[in-house]
Amino acid sequence: MKTLVLLRHGESEWNLKNRFTGWTDVDLSEKGAEEAKSAGNALKKAGYDFDLCYTSYLKRAIHTLNYALGEIDREWLPVIKSWKLNERHYGALQGLNKSETAIKYGEKQVQIWRRSFDVEPPRLKPEDERNPARQQQYREVPREVLPLTESLRDTVTRVVPYYTQKILPQIQDGKRVLIAAHGNSLRALIMTFENLSAEQIADVNVPTGIPLIYEFTKDAQVHRKFYLGDPAVIEMKMEAVAPQGKAK
User: Is residue 248's pLDDT more than 80?
Assistant: First the structure.
């Protein structure tokens, strides 16, 4: 049986403020740092160990991984960072308060931007400072492949091939892998692992700071999945994600 652990970053400063974040490189809130440490402690208590870790270019995921590895005394593990594991790019919505955006454009439109599979949010203009082509993290990435906005379909298109080409061979080779990433980059993987439809993935909410364990058969089929933690806490965190685009 092959095992993979997925970990969504802890609460970020912009999660706390209910802002669209996307590729904006905001850090963890104090609560988010504690969630990351709690995730590491849960992995330690359950006896999980790893050989290799992957994360995105965004500090909220990187710091979540660092905190978790600190709890299991594995800060020396090799870590591979890839922009292809970044959160979905929310385009011109980045930085906007979700509730205020719902008041302006309507809850239905915000829900479409947040949860539809193939609808992109408004695009950034190339000259916008939020354009990743203008940011140092992506200076080695060809400008033409960097997005100005993304749908979940676009996110799947960049995340899944990276997983298939780079991460899956490591798992098949017997490596114990931990991926610390983001709600939508992880939803892209979940959609693929579980063969979910566009309608089904819309209802999947990934809680912050809770390890998600996947066990695979030899032919890479899901044998079972489960979150590591208190079911009541996990359910509460999932329910907290769903209404973020409501007008308040």
Answer: no
